[in-house]
Fold this sequence. Notes:
Layout: E1 15-26, E2 28-33, E3 40-45, H1 49-64, H2 80-95, H3 101-110, E4 112-123, E5 130-149, E6 152-162, E7 177-189, H4 205-220, H5 238-244, E8 246-256, E9 262-272, E10 278-290, E11 295-310, E12 316-321, E13 325-326
Antiparallel strand pairs: 1-4, 2-3, 4-5, 5-6, 7-10, 8-9, 10-11, 11-12, 11-13
Amino acid sequence: MISILISFNSFSQDKILSKKIVYEVKIMNSRIEQSVKKDSIVYDYLVDKRFWWQTIDTIISQVKSKKLYFKTFERENLVFDSIKKDLQKKYLACFRDTLTDKKLQKLLEEEIRAIKFEEEWTYNPQTMLINKKVIGYNPIITRDSVILQDEDLVPKEFFRFELGWIYPSLKPELKDTLCVVRNIHFTIPIYNKTPYHWWDSHIEPEYSLPYFESYMQKAEQGQIKVYAQPNSTESYTRAEIIKRKQFEMMTTIDTQDIYGNDVPKDTIIKGNYNTDNLDYLRFGDEWYFDIPSSQFVKNVNYLSPMIQIIGMDGGLRGLMPIYYLRRR
Length: 328
């Protein structure tokens, strides 16, 4: 346990980016470890293992003592014994095995490998840095299985159980905290095509478009420094930033020969990305867990809007960061 002091920007001058956004972050990455006898799945922690365990232990202890309650997303209280029964039922159906109290304890200690957050986002209009205020969180138990994909063995989620939402009522005072992670690197979509769940990884365009327009404009005018990578030593020049907006793509067009016949021809077309093309956000976050309030507190170390790279077949080839903005 450590005591910290985090300096926040003045929220009075900040602008709203999202009044409500829900997204999921992996706590561990899974990979296949091959051996002569048997291939197995290994999980690599993306956070401080010791402090993550202590965080989860604090939450579960508070729930068991009825100082905290797991809730539905609509904020209706869930009884912990009922959660255990639902988990045991799902575990039995999935693994054909009884989930004893000992196995349950191990699940809670070691297999909460993801977490959902409900947050409110604001940003400083001068620095364009995003502030995240955590409203609630939902720990998720997951377990992967090995599958064959394109002749390769890969891990794929096989079991999943969301424990429920925690909505702490106390405000963090930051006097008794755990540093869960100094920097966790992740990417989330920010536009959801499912209107009913508009809050899932979704920022409303009325807030996001002005933010991205200002972000790009300030970068081009040199009002904020942006970088190729989070750890780059030199910031981009104006010429480099403008060049980043341009892209080239080979496509086939129909032309006519001297006889009037249609002839397909490969050609290079040029275009420019704009705010309409920014579909994802990449973050590097610093997380603290405030023990007295049982609440998470976050600092954004760096961020970058991301562009989808679409191939000629219409398939997603990958994501490209336009440039990184960082806190320090």
